Amino acid sequence: MQNKEWALYEVFIRTRAGLSHRHAGSLHAADDQMALDYARDTYTRRSEGVSLWVVRSDQIVASDPAESAAFFEPAEDKIYRHPTFYEIPDGVENL
Amino acid sequence: MYTQGLDQQGKPEGKRDAPESAADLEAFQKRIDAEEKIEAKDWMPAAYRRTLVRQISQHAHSEIIGMQPEGNWLTRAPTLKRKAILLAKVQDEAGHGLYLYGAAETLGVSRDQMVADLLSGKAKYSTIFNYPTLTWADIGTIGWLVDGAAIMNQIPLCRCSYGPYARAMVRICKEESFHQRQGFDIMLVLCRGSGEQKAMAQDALDRWWWPSLMMFGPHDSESKHSAKSMAWKIKRFSNDELRQKFVDATVPQAEFLGLKMPDDDLRYDKKSGHYRFGEIDWQEFHDVIAGNGPCNRQRLEQRTRAQDDGAWVREAACAHAAKHAAKAA
Predict the structure, then answer these.
(1) What is the pTM of this model?
(2) Burial of A20: CB neighbours in 10 Å, binned 0-12, 13-18, 19+
């Protein structure tokens, strides 16, 4: 019982309003509130954030890098999704 | 993502290390050579993983043990300002240890295992923390020299090929420069003070200079892990290169303070633009690594005591979490 390791959490910080939360690192905690308190003490000692997210690592569903070529393949051959695909004749502006 | 650690725990070693074909190894080296970062879930050679686990966990242990020599002066700092600064610095060291344990865990080693390896003496930490802090000037010298040497070592690690380690180092390096400056500031005040204060500063420098040079590790010709780590871009500069950089940066600072480096062979070599320095006492270095430094036993005993004394807090936190989870259900 005393050797039971606390759960692993991932920490995300919003550095200031207007920016999205960004992964900062991880920590161990016994529960969610403790994870939040530890995240503050560990990752924002110099006012690095205005908002914190903590989420248990085992709750994150992640893509597999070994499969990433196949996983992201559907986007590879759709170059028409980029504006540079289209020819704009000289003289046409504001497009 | 940092979740990789969990996926791998409990898997038998053999399975994780499964077949490493020449093609896999070559492809991996190609990624490294192209300056691609390796992330936690990416395929990597077992030896790369082992090297990183060893290095990052040693680094984390050093931060944690490193709190002790300075913690020794928290209640004896000469002013409230110095006490507040030292407290913040020691808290940073704890934080650095935690960032690094987190980075090591992405490689599949558990926190409990790393702590157990430290307390059993299986894992090493930097030899520098096995020296005692006898006077207040030692606190200045540690910030100035020990953190200065650490910065030399750590800045290139921000470009380490392993992403989670590199990111932890960026965060750490941002914080280290405060550590070095507060140390130099302590030295500056002592050196501008009474004769007695200046003598105290000189005495601390005399004791810490050589151990600080040892922090860079053995000569390149003796360093058993260096070549591979350079090829994998875990290390970017050799031990001797970094040591030379540190000497070149630090000697003029000592001159500014009006202190004398305890090295009769130290001289400026105009031709190369470097300071040449005397030979390090490697016997002392190896003795401290082997556990026979002035404070090795004390450091581990204190760490073990802290771990044991904190057991009831960890248990209570688990009980509290379990109770609230049950209530919510």
Answers:
(1) 0.91
(2) exposed
